[in-house]
Design a protein that fits this description.
71 residues, mainly alpha
């Protein structure tokens, strides 16, 4: 197998991984739009070891700001 064949397979694998992460983030953004403000505040403040990942906390804060809540 040549270098370019291997490189293309790696690029395809990375691309599919990125697509999955993007789908996950879009789905969570839609979920945030349906959640109450109390639920979003809980997610935004959940910074423990087993808490929500940073990107989920950031998306919760963005949704709260779009609803008119301050920081």
């Amino acid at each position: 197998m040549s270098f370019w064949d291997k490189a293309s397979k790696v690029a395809v694998a990375v691309g599919s991984g990125v697509a999955e992460k993007m789908k996950e983030r879009v789905a969570f953004k839609q979920e945030c739009q349906e959640k109450s403000a109390d639920e979003l505040i809980r997610i935004a403040k959940d910074s423990g070891f087993f808490g929500a990942p940073e990107w989920q906390r950031q998306m919760a804060v963005i949704e709260l700001r779009s609803r008119g809540y301050g920081t």
